[in-house]
Amino acid sequence: MQKNEPIRMCIACRVRQLQKKLIRLQQNNNNIFPFTGRGRSFYLCSSCSEDEKKVKGLIKRFRLSTDDSERFVKYLKELDKNG
Ligand SMILES: [Zn+2]
Fold first, then answer.
1. How many folded domains does the chain comprise?
2. pLDDT for 17-72, tens place per residue?
3. Taking 60 as the threshold, does the pLDDT of residue 1 lie above it?
4. Cα–Cα distance for residue pair 23/75, rounded to 1 Å
5. 64-80 burial code (b ≥16 CB/10 A, e <16)
6. Residue 16 Cα, ligand 1 centroid: separation in angstroms?
7. Is residue 44 situated within a structural domain?
8. Is the pTM higher than 0.90?
C-alpha cells in the first residue's frame, strides 16, 4: 500500500481501504446512486457490495423504497460484471 494514496472507510463493514478500490456512492432523497461529483458521498467495499445481507442492511439504513433498492442492487451487480 502506498503512503500518499487516500484511504476511505466502507460504511457497511468499516474496513479501511484505498479510495480507488472502494465503490463511491451517493445518497439523496432516499435513493442511492453512483457518485455524481456533487454532494455527500460514501464508500462501499467490493466484498460488501457482493454481500446480500450487507446490501439489505444499507437499504434499510437509507430507507430505500422497493424501486430504489432494486435499482441499487442492480447497479451493484453490474459493477461485479465489469470487474
Ligand atoms: Zn465493506
1. 1
2. 999 999 999 988 778 889 999 988 999 999 999 999 999 999 999 999 999 999 99
3. no
4. 11
5. beeebbeebbeebeeee
6. 8
7. yes
8. no
Ligand 1 centroid distance, CA of 20 (Å):
14
Least Cα distance to 24 among 46, 5, 52 occurs for 46
Q: Is 1 part of any domain? A: no
Residue 66 lies in a domain: yes
Tell how far the Cα of 21 is from the centroid of ligand 1, in angstroms.
Answer: 11
Domain containing residue 48 = 7-82
Ligand 1 is an ion; its neighbours by CB within 5 Å are 10, 12-13, 45, 48
- pLDDT at res. 4: 86
**Ligand 1 centroid, distance to 49 Cα (angstroms):** 7
Q: Is residue 2 part of a domain?
A: no
